[in-house]
Amino acid sequence: MSSDNVQDYLNKGMYGANQTNPEERRKYLGSLRERIYLSMTIEQVISKNYLSTLKKEITAHPNHTLLLNGTIDMENLEAYIQLCNQLNCPFRMVSDENAKETSIGLIYVAKEAVNIEVIDVSKKQKPAEETITEKKVPEKKSFFKRFFS
Question: What is the pTM of this model?
Answer without folding.
Answer: 0.73
